[in-house]
From TrEMBL:
Protein name: Glycosyltransferase
InterPro entries: Nucleotide-diphossugar_trans, Trfase_1_rSAM/seldom-assoc
Coiled coil spans: none
Gene3D superfamilies from the UniProt entry: Spore Coat Polysaccharide Biosynthesis Protein SpsA, Chain A
Pfam hit, one: DUF2064
Lineage top rank: taxon: Bacteria
SUPFAM superfamilies: Nucleotide-diphospho-sugar transferases
Organism of provenance: Desulfococcus multivorans DSM 2059
Length: 233
């Protein structure tokens, strides 16, 4: 359901995800738990994030990759979503193009986020949109040196924030901040969150299961079915 508030009517969340193919998702985690388990866990991440976004009452566009996987992604995900392929030569170009497309429509405040943060509270999304009423941009830093969310106002968006970035490195956030509007002096920083990319990340997540159980039920059900809810060594 879309909130009728005049601000929220112009807000959209772009959820960047991959078609859950074995050997194509959570590849670092798959080295520890196997490719089949990694796919199941990835799907549970997405289910929890979509449930969280639904509670914010903001519309969501599923931005999927690769572009030819549309039929498979639509079969996988059900709900009141729009689906759009990620278009571009690399991640930065795909994200920039997704923002450009959203701003070409009616939207003036756009958030883009990934799928590695099950358990992220919906208050973080609300904080991000609230910040964009007064700030040109917003960033959600992850503990690995990247970010789990980035957002812009239409008037302040610049594709240069995605150009020349060395992706999948501990300096992604730092590189991006240098390219943000006002060189980062005016944007809003959200609470730091830990992505689940590898075995150590999963261990940390499981150690906080009492806090996150209600926020990531699909992920915890999946972990239980995989025998991974006990403290991990």
């Amino acid at each position: 359901m879309i909130n009728s508030d005049s601000h929220s009517a112009a807000q959209i969340v772009l959820l960047f995800l991959k078609n859950p193919e074995k050997g194509r998702v959570k590849t670092r985690l798959a080295k520890s738990i196997g490719r089949d388990a990694a796919v199941r866990l990835y799907q549970s991440f997405v289910e929890d994030i979509l449930s969280m976004l639904h509670r914010t009452d903001r519309p969501v566009i599923i931005c999927f990759h690769p572009p030819w996987a549309e039929a498979a992604v639509i079969r996988w995900l059900t709900g009141n979503y729009r689906f759009r392929p990620q278009i571009g030569a690399d991640l930065g170009e795909r994200m920039a193009n997704a923002f450009v497309h959203a701003f070409s429509e009616k939207y003036t405040q756009v958030l883009l986020m990934g799928t590695d943060v099950p358990g992220l509270p919906e208050d973080v999304i609300r904080e991000a949109f609230d910040a964009l009423r007064h700030r040109p941009a917003v960033l959600g830093p992850s503990t690995d040196g990247g970010y789990y969310l980035i957002g812009f106002n239409k008037r302040s968006f610049s594709p240069r924030c995605f150009r020349g970035i060395i992706w999948s490195t501990p300096t992604v956030l730092r590189q991006t901040v240098k390219k943000m509007p006002g060189q980062g002096r005016a944007f809003h920083i959200l609470p730091e969150w830990r992505d689940i990319d590898d075995w150590e990340d999963l261990k940390d997540f499981v150690s906080r299961k009492d806090v996150l159980r209600a926020q990531a039920p699909s992920t915890f059900t999946c972990l239980a079915s995989l025998g991974l809810l006990a403290p991990l060594a």
